[in-house]
Amino acid sequence: MIGLISVAAAGAAASARLAAARPARTRRYPGPAGDAVRGAVAECDQLVCFLATGATVRLLAPLLADKTTEPGVVCVDEAGRHAVALLGGHAGGANRLAAEVAAQLPGCAPVVTTATDAVGLPGLDDLGWPAEGDVAGVTRALLDGEPVTLAADAVWSLPALPPHLAPDVPDAPDAPRRRTLAITDRRLADAAPTDVVLRPPSLVVGLGASCGVPEAEVTDLLANALAEAGLSPASVTAAATVTAKADEAGLRAAAARLGVDLTTFPAEELAAVPVPNPSPAPLAAVGTPSVAEAAALLAAGPGAELVVPKRKSAMATCAVARRRPRGRLAVVGIGPGARDLLTPRAGAELRRASVVVGLDQYLDRIADLLRPGTRLLASGLGAEEERARAAVAEAAAGHAVALVGSGDAGVYAMASPALAAAGADIDVVGVPGVTAALAAASVLGAPLGHDHAVLSLSDLHTPWAVIERRVTAVAEADLVVAFYNPRSRGRHWQLPAALALLARHRPPGTPVGLVRAATHRDQRHRLTTLDAVDPSEVDMMTLVIVGNSATRAVAGRMVTPRGYRWQA
Ligand code: SAH
Questions:
Q1: CA angle, residues 310, 312, 317, in degrees to nearest 5
Q2: Mean pLDDT in the chain?
Q3: pTM over 0.85
Q4: Which residues neighbour 344 within 8 Å (Cβ) at sequence distance 6 or greater?
Q5: How far apart are CA 562 and CA 138, in angstroms?
Q6: 13 to each of 33, 39, 105, how far by Cα in Å?
Q7: Whether 17 contacts 104, CB under 8 Å
Q8: In a 10 Å sphere around its CB, with 0-12 CB exposed, 13-18 middle and 19+ buried, how is residue 386 labelled?
Q9: According to the model, what pLDDT value does residue 568 have?
Q10: Mean pLDDT (whole number) for 407-433
């Protein structure tokens, strides 16, 4: 629950706005401030105070006991310009809350001051994985530039980690014992109290039971199985069983105690999974020779390994599988040029990656957004296929990869060759970007106000006969058309040829817009007509938009009417 505390009218209006946006998660505490803060701390896990930071600090101070239970607190100033994460930035979720509050209040910016966020190191407790040990100490060591040993059992698709967090960073002479950050689902006998163990979501348990099994029996069986196999319950990310046991209370409760959902599979699906210990009893009872082992393997996905074969108690069975970590490929459009046209989501994906792949000129554009330690795979023009394959190979090796393209990365760009080469073994996310046609259109006016087509005039990968046929179809259909790749040093005649095809179906005075380097600092544009285009003004940084028979120049802007009756 989020407690909203306001005393003045301005704060009350903003508070009402937040409450309306999330009625189920918020509770309002009107003044006086002291009572409101005390009430909210007692009843809520997060607070948004429409108060000065000083006043909030004084009111909160006597109420704060220990860091693990304190609330996440965000202060918003009277004018609603800043949402300051004041307390519990990571553990209390205040950093995230500050961002959410800022998003709800127009003109409000989040202010986050916890060290890991401020200097661009990944907040270790922000990964959302259970962490054991001295998180604050290891974080401080990393911030101080001390080498920390990374000991990971597998390649997880984590964001870039700082260079001094690595398996084999050399020690300074006379350095004290260095700390370790372990990423493992194994219980570590030799972890020092100064180390951190992160628990990746790697283990999936399969459960079977007879009707009426008590929860304690399932929980004990599983706890013993994990303990004997030297595995941590904190890495258990899912539990699974057969559909027939979906409502078995003991199984549900055991899963809930682990904090995971109970997934179910039909018996036929389980029966198809090869397992080491099939048996006739479940085959007779529910129609599959294995429940626990098959459900664990199936829920854990392709490439999973059975780390605890079936174990039995009087009324329950369990087995544990380890998932193969999946790499992540984000296909990220970085927009046409201007930094503020790179979407927040694209920025987040770039910071989420440990490997960024793209054309060198695009990587230059975004270098400052990346976490320190991010690996760059840059290439020059013309190596698209190779670059796409490199990105997919990195993701297949388990890394978090961002493949970047200007505009939208799926429009005449890298997404298709990459996804044509990508298998089902990686996760793929796409982040749309503002493509050149939209950027150029906004410079020219409203040329795309009615049906339009997008064509590339590059005949490097497409035979000219095909391009010609498409241009002719567009001309006959009276569509507005945006030409990408209209001209380059080696390709001069294609644009005049395409314009000539259009001229057969459109009046000579049809508006044509040329936009070079849209949204870049050296952006230029010209509005001309079909009979007056000067192709020498067009280069490979230019987008050409040709109007349809209704497009007009209005006050120097290119406008295509929107109505369907414009020819009547
Ligand atoms: N994926 C890109 C397009 C790549 S094709 C996108 O979605 O925008 C390259 C062509 O796009 C260039 O030849 C040019 O025609 C056009 N282009 C890309 N960026 C541009 C910009 N900022 N201004 C004008 N045209 C641009």
A1: 65
A2: 91
A3: no
A4: none
A5: 60
A6: 16, 20, 10
A7: yes
A8: exposed
A9: 42
A10: 96
The C-alpha atoms of residue 212 and residue 220 are separated, in whole angstroms, by: 16
Cα-to-centroid distance, 503 and ligand 1 (Å): 24
C-beta 337 within 6 A of ligand 1: yes
In 353-457, alpha helices (H): 360-366, 384-396, 415-421, 436-444
* Alpha-carbon span 53 to 438, nearest angstrom: 43
Ligand 1, atom nearest to 437 Cα: 8
Distance, CA of 20 to chain centre? 27
The reply to whether ligand 1 has any atom less than 6 angstroms from the CB of 358 is no
Cα 410 to ligand 1 centroid, rounded to whole Å: 12
pLDDT at 65 over 80: no
Assign 125 a pLDDT band (cuts: 50, 70, 90).
low
Of 398, 325, 405, nearest to 357 by C-alpha is 405
- Given pLDDT bands bounded at 50, 70 and 90, which one contains residue 272? very high
DSSP state at residue 346: H
**Strand duo 165-166 + 180-183: pairing:** unpaired
Q: How many whole angstroms separate alpha carbon 297 and alpha carbon 305?
A: 7
Tell me if 319 sits within 8 A of 293, measured CB to CB. Answer: yes
pLDDT digits (tens, 9 = 90+) for 479-536: 999 999 999 999 999 999 999 999 999 999 999 999 999 999 999 999 999 999 999 9
Angle at 155 between CA 153 and CA 159, to 5 degrees: 120
User: For 39, what's the count of Cα atoms within 13 Å in the CB-facing half-sphere?
Assistant: 15
Higher-confidence residue of 126 and 371: namely 371
Instruction: Please tell me the distance between residue 458's alpha carbon and the centre of ligand 1 in angstroms.
Output: 12
485 lines ligand 1 (CB under 6 A): yes
For 108-155, give the DSSP string. -EEE---HHHHTTPPPGGGG-S-EEE-HHHHHHHHHTT--EEEEESS-
Where do we find the tokens 């049906």? 451
How does residue 120 score in pLDDT terms, banded at 50, 70 and 90? very low
